[in-house]
TrEMBL record:
Matches recorded under Pfam families: Bro-N, Phage_pRha
Organism expressing this protein natively: Azotobacter chroococcum
Residue ranges occupied by any Bro-N domain in the UniProt entry: 119-228
Name of the molecule in the record: Bro-N domain-containing protein
Transmembrane stretches, start-end: none
InterPro entries: BRO_N_domain (IPR003497), Phage_regulatory_Rha (IPR014054)
Length: 419
């Protein structure tokens, strides 16, 4: 691992659990050290276990490849203990920068607590959603919505939440107690900025999913408002109710993806958001949502499509005609049928498979019979390979024995010398 070049960006000091903290990754970046070197220095600090537990916490972050990597989050005291051995003019500059950042954070924390007593550690109740099988939390605060920065970062395939927040203005980011953790949040304008600067391949699916999620799962939204030339408020409500009914029976983890599929289908068909659909096409929109097949939907077994006699006709003559190589040992003039198992394996047509296909296409559930047949075929192939291997080994052994049997033996000098 190469040393991280000294960063020109401001130092990172964040409020976690009511305490200003920084990270080993940020320290390595600003002091021009390898991150693994800083990790090793923290793990080998000559301090008491109590001090270590109070001032250092091992956490994880997402690297550029999206993989989990270890880092340490440290308090002001932990930073001071770690960096007291860093010497040189450049190190002194960054020590001063961190100290100033810690002081600024502590003053802001003190002033905020004095102005708004009781608000510093008030836990927020997040809305728990799932995006691409990962948690995505939304924190309502009055009429505003805040988004957990690390969840947004993972959705956009960014390294960590710090990548999102460090360049945002203070009014677009905040620290809130979410459950038992103090998390960094961004507001809706901050999220839009993040989407604007992210890869379009990542940003557009998230934007589309988010629009659907906010419509479907966030309560307290204002009543639907009709746009000029678009669906009325009642039509919008009916469409949302239909989507809700479609996804209600799905497993919880599938609901977000299913809602996205419904809203995406509408946007693809009509080329606009659902609110902008022309009122005269409302029935078409309802029909589209009702017909969408959703992943995870519990479908009833399909009834047989054909009632009565099926076109089933598999005489022996047809079987032999389709696989002539299979009946090399069969005498056509004899009433007996002779089939070798090796010939069965080389056949290209199976009347049993064809029959099961017809039943399946007619709506009958024959998968058990099909896989039983496939099991027999696979086992016969394995047995054929084993027998061929055994025969080959036996033939080789017999040939070796025959060569040894014919080999001449010479015993030198045993008969004596004749004059």
């Amino acid at each position: 691992m190469k040393a991280i070049a000294p960063a020109a960006n401001p130092v990172l000091v964040e409020l976690v659990n009511g305490q200003p903290t920084t990270t080993s990754l940020d320290v390595a970046a600003h002091f021009g050290k390898r991150h693994d070197t800083v990790l090793r220095a923290i793990r080998t600090l000559d301090c008491s276990p109590e001090f270590n537990a109070r001032n250092f916490a091992e956490v994880e972050y997402l690297d550029a490849k999206g993989e989990q990597r270890p880092q340490y989050r440290m308090t002001r005291d932990g930073f001071t203990f770690l960096c007291m051995g860093f010497t040189g003019k450049e190190a002194a500059k960054w020590k001063e920068a961190y100290i100033n950042a810690f002081n600024k954070m502590e003053r802001a924390l003190h002033d905020g607590a004095a102005a708004n007593p009781g608000t510093v550690a008030t836990p927020a109740d997040p809305i728990h959603l799932t995006y691409n099988d990962r948690p995505f939390r939304i924190v309502p605060e009055g009429a505003a919505l805040w988004f957990v920065a690390v969840d947004v970062a993972r959705a956009l395939d960014m390294r960590d939440g710090h990548c999102l927040t460090r360049h945002l203005r203070s009014e677009h980011k905040a620290l809130r107690q979410v459950g038992h953790k103090r998390l960094s949040l961004i507001d809706r304008p901050g999220l839009e900025l993040a989407l604007h600067h992210a890869s379009p391949a990542r940003a557009e699916p998230l934007r589309l999913w988010l629009e659907a999620a906010l419509e479907q799962f966030v309560s307290g939204a204002p009543a639907p408002r009709a746009l000029p030339g678009g669906l009325s408020g009642d039509q919008q409500g009916a469409l949302k109710a239909l989507v809700a009914a479609r996804i209600e029976a799905l497993p919880e983890l599938e609901r977000g993806r299913a809602a996205t599929r419904c809203w995406s289908a509408l946007k693809s068909r009509f080329g606009c958001g659902y609110k902008e659909i022309a009122p005269e096409r409302f029935t078409e929109a309802v029909s589209l949502v009702a017909r969408i097949v959703l992943e995870g939907e519990l479908l009833e077994p399909e009834a047989p499509k054909v009632v009565g006699r099926l076109d089933i006709d598999y005489p022996i003559e047809d079987w032999k005609a389709r696989n002539p190589q299979q009946f090399r040992h069969d005498n056509p003039n004899s009433p007996d049928l002779v089939v070798g198992y090796g010939d069965l394996l080389s056949s290209g047509y199976s009347p049993c498979c064809d029959l099961l296909d017809k039943l399946h296409n007619a709506g009958y559930r024959v998968d058990g019979a099909f896989y039983e047949l496939r099991s027999y075929q696979n086992l016969m192939l394995q047995m054929d390979m084993a027998i061929r291997l055994m025969v080959g080994n036996a033939r080789q052994a017999i040939e070796g024995f025959e060569q040894d049997r014919r080999r001449l033996q010479k015993f030198v000098g045993v008969k004596g010398h004749r004059a």
